[in-house]
Amino acid sequence: MLIIYTTHITERLQYAVDTLFNSVTKLSFQLTADKGIYTETDAAAKINYSAEKISDHELLIQPHSLLFENDIHEQKINCFEWNNLKAFFKTEADIPFDFLAASFYLITRYEEYLPHSLDEYGRYAYTNSLAYKENFLHLPLINLWMKELLKLLQQKFPELQTPNSQFQFLPTYDIDIAYCYLHKPIINNIAGFFKEIFTAKWKKALERAGVLLMEMHDPFVTYDWLDAMHEICNLHPVYFFLLAEKRKLYDKNINPHNKYLQQLIRWNAKKYETGIHPSWQSGDDAVILKREIALLGKIIDQPVTRSRQHYIRMTLPDTYRFLIDNGIKEDYSMGYGSINGFRASVASSFYWYDLEKDAPTELMIHPFCYMEANSFFEQHYTAAQAAEELKQYHDVVKSVNGTLITIFHNHFVTEQKEWIDWRNMYGDFLKKNFSWGKYKTVGP
């Protein structure tokens, strides 16, 4: 067991230690402010989180002030290199920076509570982030720090038993547009058909006609193919359904009261975990959010406890507070809707800390690092380039025994000419890395 000493324990310090040693490394520990207990205990390893050295048989980490504050203000940050990794909050000790405070800063998204610019969708712009500015957005930096810390602890305390954690993979899907042509109002299909004729999109017009005449399959109905991939690779995905009652702006799903959509959701919920994909409109109206969650609960006949924001529209702390108020226990929105990478610099699930209230919550956050829509629309990658990007995320998360969470959409894996390469890319990734139990996969 590891024992950690500090002069006094704050909510922030307790949260940082709990998160890093319970969630990220899964190492048994005791945190104490009693110097007597610290010096007298027969622990396998000791960390002294204070300004002064107590004994030779310890790892000294000198604290930055962040974890002993209770307000939110601009922090002075100067990055430097430590073991080929970026670090900040420099101190003078066995480890030359306060990894607890630095991790707290990143994982709580401290910088998102400070004044910042917005992107074109009114979201926190990733270009504000320290991770982007210092070029570590592509890395689960906290996991990498903890990996280095464990090495140091093992060198100094050979008797310390380190956890045998494993790499895990969790595929997730956002169902924004369940059908391309089917089950939409007749007037919409007629208008769409003639628009395709007038703009000389002959193949699209023929495809629409073929589907509506029941001679062809709707191209967005890729659920059986995904199901087959999950069976081959022993995967346990999470599906998120958009249930906006008004078709408006970025909410382009079919009517959520449509019986065929509800049949699809029920079919899915019998096999997989199913969550709400709160509409763009719900971001401005908590009543809409409540109604959408209630509707999904009625459809699947069970409480809805999982969520991911449509277009990753989220503002801290309001979005997470709304979700908590409506019974959501787990959120999968921690990532960017405009670039791939680690928004919270971590590849492990953790409980959200409400900085304004300066208190931990019971909302579990599952961060994603890869969404195919980012690769295509924002980064302008080909399917081949996206495959290489996905492989890089897979490899770095595997190197720290973290959890890789990806986002795909049903309409990105169709057999349409413009998307077939993306379907093949995803299928190849799954079969190459996860078929026949190559690695451990994880269910919610």
Give a written overview of the molecule.
- The chain is of the alpha/beta class and 444 residues long.
- The protein has a domain at 168-180 and 219-437: Glycoside hydrolase/deacetylase (TIM Barrel, Alpha-Beta Barrel).
- It is 36% helix and 14% strand.
- The chain has 14 helices and 15 strands.
- Strands 9-8-7-15-14 form a five-stranded parallel beta sheet. It has a four-stranded parallel beta sheet with strand order 2-1-3-4. A four-stranded mixed beta sheet has the order 10-11-13-12, with helices on both faces.
- Helix 1 (11-24) crosses helix 3 (99-107) and helix 13 (383-399) packs parallel to helix 14.
- The longest helix is centred in the C-terminal third of the chain and has 17 residues, at 383-399.
- The radius of gyration is 24 Å and the shape is elongated.
SSE blueprint and pairings:
Blueprint lengths: L1 E5 L4 H14 L4 E4 L2 H6 L4 E5 L9 E2 L19 E3 L2 E3 L11 H9 L22 H4 L7 H16 L11 E8 L10 H13 L3 H11 L10 H11 L4 E4 L17 H13 L1 E4 L9 H15 L5 E2 L10 H8 L4 E2 L18 E5 L4 E7 L4 E2 H7 L4 H17 L3 E7 L10 H15 L10
Parallel strand pairs: 1-2, 1-3, 3-4, 7-8, 7-15, 8-9, 10-11, 11-13, 14-15
Antiparallel strand pairs: 5-6, 12-13
Helix pairs in contact: 1-3, 6-7, 13-14
CATH topology of the domain at 168-180 and 219-437: TIM Barrel
Measured between the Cα atoms of the first and last residue, the distance is: 28 Å
Query: What are the low-pLDDT stretches, counting only 5+ consecutive residues below 50?
Result: none
Side by side, the strands of the main sheet go 9-8-7-15-14
Main sheet summary: 5 strands, parallel
Within CATH, the superfamily of the domain at 168-180 and 219-437 carries the name: Glycoside hydrolase/deacetylase
CATH architecture of the domain at 168-180 and 219-437: Alpha-Beta Barrel
Helix content: 25-40%
User: Structural class, judged by helices and strands?
Assistant: alpha/beta
H/E element sequence = EHEHEEEEHHHEHHHEHEHEHEEEEHHEH
Radius of gyration, CA atoms, in whole angstroms: 24 Å
CATH class of the domain at 168-180 and 219-437: Alpha Beta
